[in-house]
Specification:
Keywords: Cell membrane, Membrane, Transmembrane, Transmembrane helix
Pfam family, one: MARVEL
Helix content: 55-70%
Organism: Mesembrinibis cayennensis
Radius of gyration: 22 Å
Subunit structure: Forms oligomers.
GO molecular function: structural constituent of myelin sheath
Distance between the termini: 40 Å
Shape: elongated
Structural class: mainly alpha
C-alpha cells in the first residue's frame, strides 16, 4: 500500500525539515553593511544599557536618548535578522536598499541629536560619581553609534544606486 497513489507518505527521520529552515547569509556578515549592523546592535545596546543603569528619570534629556537608542536598537536587530536569514528575498516588492538607506539616514540624524543631548547633560559635579562615569561612557558610545549609522548610510546609498556592480547582477540577486 505504500506505493499506491493517494496514500500519505510519512518519514520518521525528516531530513527535509532542515531544508525548511532559512539559510544564514555568510556573505552578508562579511559585507560592510552586515559588519556595521552588528556594530550598531552592540554599540546601541551599550548606550541604552549604560543610561538605564543611572538615575536617568531625574533628567528629562535622557528620556530622548533612551527613546532613540532603544528604538533604533530594536529596528536594527530586526533588519539584521531579516538580512541574515535572507527574508528580504521573500518580499522582493519592497525596495530594500532604499528602505535601508532611509532608515540609516534617519538614524544618523536622530543619533546626532541623542549624542549632543547626552553629552550636554553629563555633569562632572554629579553627586553620584558612577552616574557620571556611565553617562560619559554612554555619550562616547552614542558618538560611535552615530558614526556607524553614518557609514551605513554611505554604503546603503551605494547599494541603492548600484555602485560597484553591474545592472545584470543586481537584478538577478534582488529578485532571486
Amino acid at each position: 500500500m505504500a506505493g499506491l497513489p493517494g496514500t500519505a507518505r510519512t518519514r520518521s527521520g525528516s531530513p527535509g525539515a532542515a531544508a525548511a529552515l532559512p539559510a544564514l547569509d555568510g556573505a552578508f556578515l562579511c559585507s560592510p553593511l552586515g559588519g556595521l549592523m552588528g556594530a550598531q546592535a552592540v554599540l546601541g545596546l551599550l548606550v541604552w544599557a549604560l543610561i538605564a543603569d543611572t538615575t536617568y528619570h531625574l533628567h528629562a534629556a535622557y528620556g530622548w536618548v533612551m527613546f532613540v537608542s532603544i528604538f533604533f536598537w530594536i529596528v536594527t536587530v530586526l533588519f539584521f535578522v531579516t538580512y541574515l536569514l535572507q527574508l528580504q528575498l521573500k518580499f522582493y516588492v519592497i525596495p530594500w536598499p532604499l528602505v535601508l538607506m532611509i532608515f540609516n539616514a534617519v538614524a544618523t540624524v536622530l543619533y546626532i541629536t541623542a549624542f549632543v543631548t547626552c553629552a550636554a547633560a553629563v555633569q562632572p559635579t554629579s553627586w553620584r560619581q558612577w552616574d557620571y562615569n556611565r553617562r560619559a561612557a554612554a555619550s562616547f558610545f552614542a558618538c560611535l553609534t552615530m558614526i556607524t549609522y553614518g557609514a551605513s548610510t554611505f554604503f546603503s546609498f551605494r547599494a541603492w544606486k548600484g555602485l560597484g556592480s553591474n545592472a545584470a547582477t543586481s537584478q538577478v540577486t534582488d529578485h532571486a
